[in-house]
Each structure stands twice: as structure tokens, then as C-alpha cells.
Design brief:
This protein is α/β, with parallel strands linked by helices. It has ten helices and eight strands. The protein has a four-stranded parallel β-sheet with strand order 2-1-3-4, sandwiched between helices. Strands 6-5-7-8 form a four-stranded parallel β-sheet, sandwiched between helices. The longest helix has 61 residues.
Length: 318
Amino acid sequence: MPGRATPLLVVLVFLTSAGVCAPLFAQADDGSKPVVVTTTTVLGSIVSDLAGDLVNVEIVASPAVCPAHYDVKPSDIERIRMASLVLAHGMEPWVDSLVAAAGGAVPVVKVRGGWGDPERLKKLYSLVAQALGEHLRLNLGDRLSKCLSAIDSVKSVLKNMARDYGFEGVPVVSMMWQRPFVEFLGFKVVASYGPPETVTPKLYSDVIANATQYRAVLVIDNLQSGTDLGESIAKEVGAVHVVLSNFPGTSPEVRNVTSLMLYNAKILARALGEAQVRGELSKAMKEVEFWRTLSVALGGLSASLAIGVAVLAIRSRR
């Protein structure tokens, strides 16, 4: 069983306060503040952490869906019309047309880069702070420093969790958008796959082959890209299927990306524990089957010997 040395209280404290600034979805409706529209809860939570008391944050896409597949609504056009700044990742194909439909006057900053591990997340915070400073003239230097320090603290907690729960070197299959986080925690990714619509039969076969060869114990899926494919892979290779999210807001306690990382790490710890229990049960069942087979074989041998002795005895009487 995995270790349990990381204090649960410490984890809970970080889950509720890792953002150090204003929490996601708790903005006051103050018309005197500039409105920042973000395409996702990732960017929305970063703006809230950095400047939640200085701006009003509006988020377009639900955290439950992939933003690349989001269906724009008429209310989104009104959001853009009211905005002083729009922040996007650059992967949303609908942003430019949405801004054009709203009149095209608002500045749009595409904040490119991932957030799958703490170092990448720090870069994203810095880019958002830069955009808010340039377009809204907000001086966020001290706030940014506090947020970056909070991310470093969470990074330390995550590394301790990875050590205590024995993540290092454990073979897993991972959806590509979860891979940076999974590898940061020390797991060994033996196969990876993209969005289900991009996975060919050949790629699927290769994933199964690698997962089988390296005895992957987990198949780590991504909620927003769909989970049927990962479930199918897990069933074929006998691994535990685990679903993570890469956008905060899918659970009430997950307010920003650092709390999301901690939340996902706990899910992985539980899944690995389940995989280890399965492995122990499988080993025990194999041992039982071995002794059962041996017992049957020995029983058959005993019967054969008894028959042989009886035959010899009959012959000797003759």
C-alpha cells in the first residue's frame, strides 16, 4: 500500500488558500471596475488571484468542456461588448469571430503556454500579469510575487505527496493533456494518446501493446476530452481507469490551478492504491490456483500409484 505521510490537513489548507488572492467565481458586480473576459476558468482563476479586487472577471467556456469545442451563445457577445480586455489561450477557434460579432473594439491577448506543472503555471501567471499591466495599467508586481511563491509552496507539497505515495517510476498510460502533470509527479508514461477523434486504430493498437509490455497500472484520462477511450484501454490491459480535470471549477473546492493540481494528485493516490490492491489480489489468486492445480496433480499421481500397487499385488498372488 502507498505511504500516508503527507498530512491531510496541509493538503486541505492548500486546497482552500493556494491562490493567495481573491477566489474564483467570487467577484463583486461593481460597474466601476474594468471587465476582463477570459475564455476559460484557467485564465479566469489567474486573473482572480492576481487582481480579483481590482477587476470584474467574466468566463466564457464551462470548465466541463474542452474550450476548442465550445459553442458560442448570444450572451457571450454581450460579455465581450462590456469587456475592457479579453484573454484567451490561442486554441479557441471561436474567439476572433466572437470579438468581431461584438464590434471588434476590445483588445484580445492570447496567453500561450501550458499549465500542466508548476513551472509552466508560473509562466502563465507572469504573462497574465503583464497583459493586465499593459492594457489596464495595473501594477501587480507584489501580487505576482506572492502568487509565484504560493505556486512554489504547492510544488513542494506535490513532490512530498509523490514521494509518500510512491508515484516515482510507476508505469502508466496518459492522455496527452495530462502528461506534463503526470510526469512532473514522477510517473513513467509508457504510452500516450490524444483526443479520441484523432486516435487511429493503429495508434490504439500501439497504446495497448506498450501498456501491456510495460504493465501499466493506471490509464489517466482527461475529463474535458471524453473518457470512453481511456476506459476502453484500461479494460483491455487490466489497469485502473482514472479521470482528471485540467480546468478548475469542475468541483466547488477546486478554485484555481494549484488547488486543481492537489485535487488531481489525491485522485491519483487513491487510484494507485486501488491498483496495488488489485495486484495483490491477482497475485493471491494465482497462488491459490497454483496450489489447487498442484493438489489435483498430486491427487492424480497418488491415485495412479495406488492402482499400480494394486495391480502388482494381484500379479504377485498369481
